[in-house]
Amino acid sequence: MPDWIALLIPLVPLLALMVILFVAARRARVRRRIATVPRGWIRTLGVVVSEREFSRSQLDLHGDRFRVQVRQPVISFKDPAGREITFPSRIFAAAMPRPGAFVEVLYDPTDPTRARIAPESVPTVGRSVSTWTLVVGMVVAVVLFLGVLATGIAFLNA
Predict the structure, then answer these.
(1) Helices (H) and strands (E) in the chain, counts
(2) Which residues cross the membrane (predicted)?
(3) Using CA of residue 64, residue 65, residue 69, residue 70, what is the dihedral sign?
(4) What strand order describes the sheet that includes 111-117?
(5) Is residue 119 a contact partner of residue 35, using CB atoms and an 8 Å limit?
């Protein structure tokens, strides 16, 4: 086996770790954006009245496509004037509240039709990778990468 191939073999897991950390960082950023509550919006209680169910295509770690069933709840709540407002959630996932479940709703007091489900009511939004975990993971990956690279260069020069 050529020396340069022996050098590349330890790099493959490190590159895979870096890709996994990059994907986790992107997902964490999306979850934080979803969890942001607009300033001045009001919290109230709503109920899931129905749901839209559909399948979505995703990629696994090997690049193969697979189908996932996801649900998008339709939520109803009453504003202070007593009007019933019904809206579909912007968030859809496999683990969403089912019809009949009570959820917290956030809405714009100037336009109650602008509403969203509160992030705490969605189990998948609260579980995201922290920024520090990603930073530490990337630093470890870079240090390991540089260590393997230095060892390989020393091995090739010997």
Answers:
(1) 4, 5
(2) 6-25, 134-156
(3) positive
(4) 84-88, 65-78, 42-59, 102-108, 111-117
(5) yes
| Residues 140, 28: Cα–Cα separation, whole Å | 19
Tell me: the pLDDT tens digits for 79-124?
Answer: 888 999 999 988 777 778 888 989 999 999 999 989 988 877 776 5
Write the DSSP symbol of residue 9.
T
Which one-letter DSSP state was computed for residue 63? S
The CA-atom distances, in angstroms, between 81 and each of 41, 106, 118 are: 16, 16, 21
Place of tokens 């969403």: 96
Phi/psi at 104 (nearest 5 deg)? -80, 140
Residue count of the chain: 158
Distance, CA of 19 to chain centre: 15
